[in-house]
Write a structure and sequence with these properties.
Two copies of one chain form a homodimer. By secondary structure, chain A is of the alpha+beta class. Chain A folds into two domains: about 120 residues, Creatine Amidinohydrolase, Chain A, domain 1, CATH 3.40.350; about 210 residues, Alpha-Beta Complex (Creatine Amidinohydrolase), CATH 3.90.230. Chain A contains ten helices and 18 strands. In chain A, the strands form six sheets. A six-stranded mixed β-sheet of chain A has the order 4-3-2-1-5-6. A three-stranded antiparallel β-sheet of chain A has the order 7-8-11. In chain A, helix 7 packs antiparallel against helix 8 and helix 9 packs antiparallel against helix 10. The longest helix of chain A is centred in the middle third of the chain and has 24 residues. Chain A is elongated. The relative contact order of chain A is 0.11. The interface between A and B is large, with 42 and 42 residues.
Chain lengths: ~350, ~350
């Protein structure tokens, strides 16, 4: 359960960033961002120098309070009524306002609603990329669920078992370990043999063969915070060339993690992974990693040409993968925390 | 497995709508829309009078073909390269182009990429709201998974069982019944007693008490198509007033479904539900329903002031709910298919 003091810290940090970036006021309505700042993914917030207001449905006013989150809840809470935001802006004399990176038609409607042109800013998403101590703890617990579930995977992935049955057992384990939700929006991935050459392959009714390799991509969720982890499992005795490929990708994962330093450009980290693969004669078809937090995929993006800078407090994945159509796929993924300048693996 | 002939039908229908709305060409990149038109949720499409092109990653060119979907795959498939879309637009002499309702910053980047101002259209989402015969079949099978899972819920929801444990059993059942993924993005909802007064309450470690009511909101997914269904279960002998509330909401669900007619405004259907609740002395805190298909929430929206028109072939939910803070929540939800002018319940 998140506390008022933690929420207050987040709101204060956001005010500082707004000041740095010259944002006079900010209207927040993306449920994940609202949840990050208020403790509950519902309602709309207006942040400004003079006042931080949260509008919510009548049903929720009681939950958004000291009663629920402890003394010092950092918002004035009001029931949402038509034009409430517009009136508040006029009352506070606000002249410029920023909103989130929302769908285009919603952006147009917001401009119409407020009767003014608004800026678009990803300031909340960037703050969310750098975790607070409390968030690091939640992410650590979430990673623990993933590690335990992966142990279960090593247990249930066997010759003759249908992919979907192995997956159901693992998802069940994830829930029983206390995960808030199933792993990821579309559920976890489990694919064997040549089907695993498709990055997004979903578990089917195929039976797992021996020898073969099985890609298992899973995660948990603790107090809203996701985790993400992938292993490529061996079933039976795979041949030496396949074994070599597994070792190469797993080693590349480890080497990439060792390279991580504070202040590094995410695109450079990706280039390293891509070049190592090319040396070995393979192309790299996806990004090297992504931030993890209240969403499975958030900032930073560790991909080609990414200018995102890796900062202390960020939590993200490193996930090299090689895919050979008609043959097999191999991916190894860990979730790391960048702290005191270096990366520490959380999924271990 | 979707066939080339089904995909062709969808693409042809989209071309007709584009002509009606005066859209010369359409760039599609939302994975759900791409999946709807190409059979696989990856890549970008440009639809125009002269040619329908799909750009994808090298890894996927083989999967996007007659080989995989059967004779007559309706796209020219090319590997994506920088500025490929811009060059194609120039080659085909396209003068105006529409894109989907994408995030604002992505919209700005797309304008920059294409070197022209683009329109925003939800034409694909609106086509998706009216299901093809094949889609109705998938949705029927998906609804069947939900119904079977709900039977499991009646079985496992008992006094003394932790909410999270009951939920894990039900999600396991959903997977074992062949669901493509867990129900919904955040998993299913199961909440008992006073916690169910929160519409979005998630299962916790609380034990289910007797007497109490338990809201179970679940669904399955078959060949990509979701289902959605809610029941409020009784544990032990609840009092007469509570029983009366359950009967009222369930009956209101049935009456709303009986009222559905082709050509009706969705907002009017919602008004009916809201007014009936108000007569009984309750407020209605959410929408009466939403379309279901490749997404759990899609068009139409059955909510206050919705101008969406209910059409033959639409599949959507009807879900009245009453929430009494500190006491209980009651919701009953069915998924219906509007066919031959009337609604037929799929979740039964």
């Amino acid at each position: 359960m998140i506390s008022s003091s933690e929420l207050k810290k987040r709101v204060e940090r956001l005010h500082l960033s707004m000041e740095c970036e010259g944002i006079e006021s900010l209207l927040v309505s993306n449920p994940k961002n609202v949840g990050y700042l208020t403790g509950k993914e519902t309602g709309r917030i207006l942040l400004s120098k003079d006042q931080d207001t949260l509008w919510t449905r009548e049903l929720y006013t009681e939950m958004h309070s000291d009663l629920y989150f402890g003394k010092g809840y950092p918002f004035e809470v009001a029931v949402y009524e038509k034009d409430a935001v517009k009136r508040k802006i006029a009352d506070l004399g606000i002249e410029n306002i920023a909103v989130e990176n929302m769908p285009f038609l919603k952006y147009e409607n917001t401009c119409k609603e407020l009767g003014m042109k608004v800026l678009v800013s990803e300031i909340v998403e960037w703050q969310r990329a750098v975790k607070t101590v409390e968030e690091m703890e939640m992410l650590g617990k979430s990673a623990r669920i993933a590690v335990n579930a992966m142990e279960k995977a090593y247990d249930v992935v066997r010759e003759g078992v249908r992919e979907i049955d192995a997956l159901a057992e693992i998802e069940y384990e994830i829930r029983m370990r206390g995960s808030d939700s199933p792993p990821f929006n579309d559920g976890m991935l489990l694919s064997s043999g040549k089907d695993s050459a498709d990055i997004h392959a979903r578990a089917g009714r195929r039976k797992i063969k021996s020898p073969s390799t099985v890609v298992v991509d899973l995660g948990g969720r603790y107090s809203g915070y996701y985790s993400d982890m992938t292993r490529t499992l061996e079933v039976g005795r795979i041949d030496a060339k396949e074994k070599d490929l597994l070792l190469f990708v797993d080693d590349l994962r480890a080497r990439a993690i060792d390279m991580i330093r504070e202040g590094m450009k995410a695109g450079d980290l990706h280039s390293f992974v891509e070049k190592e693969m090319e040396k070995k004669g393979y192309k790299f078809f996806h990004g090297s990693g992504h931030g993890v937090g209240l969403e499975v995929h958030e900032f930073p993006s560790i991909a080609r040409d990414s200018a995102d800078v890796l900062k202390d407090g960020m939590v993200f994945t490193i996930e090299p993968g090689i895919y050979i159509p008609g043959k097999m796929g191999v991916r190894f993924e860990d979730m790391v925390l960048l702290k005191n300048g270096k990366a520490r693996i959380l999924t271990r």
